[in-house]
Amino acid sequence: MTGSVTERIRDIQSRIDALPRVRLAHLPTPLDACPNLSAVLGCDLSIKRDDCTGLAFGGNKARQHEFMLADALADGADCIIQGSASQSNHSRQLAAAGAKLGLEVFLLPKMDEFSSPVQGNYLIDQLLGATIIPISPDESTKDRKEQLAEKLRSAGRRPYVVGMGATRSLTLGVIAYVQALLEIITAQPDAIPDWIFSATQGSTLAGLQLGCELLGLPTKLVGICPMTASHEAYLSPQEIAELAQGAASLLGVGTGITADQISTTTEYVGERYGVPSAGSLDAIRMLGSLEGILLDPVYSGKGFAGLLDYCKRGIVGPGERIVFVHTGGLPALFSQSEYLVG
Ligand SMILES: *Cc1c(COP(=O)(O)O)cnc(C)c1O
């Protein structure tokens, strides 16, 4: 693409605006400077507050659901099916969006170690009017979603399946993060970040990276994955690159993004997905005590632990500009209370 960054932003924005979208999130989210922590780290850190998107405690899915649910409605869907861990942020924000749009939402949460006592996201799900069908931990979520979709279809319904394994909805989630990247650059056009860090499974990173590519920015991206490759919801760099390519084609632009340019790391997972690591606990306390900003133990805490480690190891150089994209997830602070204190 040619032209100045401002012209490119305008062009990409008009391509995004041409896509079906429902309004769910408070946008643009703030980009908060972090002067106290920046002084400690010797860098220039800001946080993109996508924990503040509204929609029943916020998070990155509020932004992504705007495109995904508009697509579902354009497709004639009369209900949405989502399955995941009991403490799913995706499910919580989907239930809230469904309530707002008058769309029936079926949630298939796994009865795992965080489903009882009822707390955090799983508690909030129960208050938002979704139909909740618990499934046992040894069942395949992808299979159970498909079985329910079949059953609803044969009853004359038109279900739209989202979440892991649903490539179209993941691709639309990428578009939402191209939008977030435009917001970051628009907020500080004279302070292009040297680095952007985020917790991600794929869509968020793919969108930020596609946005940087389309604007021609030299920014380095680091996606911190909350799960190892053996997890059912893990996406490989190849799959993430394909999501970016799919989003580029929806926007009608070319992209040179390939798997070897996708920078994700599973280095900060700790023991496993869903349980806080020592690094995430330190990160939560550090950002909380220096900036009054909360992180969650499952995603953003591990993402921020990665950022702190890159600074400590000198991979991020002195004075460099860093944006951390805070993807939300804060209800997990309550479902994981015993890990956080004591
Ligand atoms: C879902 C989620 C992510 C991962 O988002 P992707 O778009 O799949 O990369 C990161 N952080 C939080 C808090 C989430 O809920």
TrEMBL record:
Domain of life, source organism: Bacteria
Q: Where is the Tryptophan synthase beta chain-like PALP domain?
A: 23-328
> What organism, scientifically named, is this protein from?
Kribbella alba
Pfam families found in the cross-reference section:
PALP
The molecule here is called: D-cysteine desulfhydrase
Question: What keywords is this UniProt entry annotated with?
Answer: Pyridoxal phosphate
| Required co-factors | pyridoxal 5'-phosphate
* InterPro entries (alphabetical): ACCD_DCysDesulf, TrpB-like_PALP, TrpB-like_PALP_sf
The text of the family note is: Belongs to the ACC deaminase/D-cysteine desulfhydrase family.
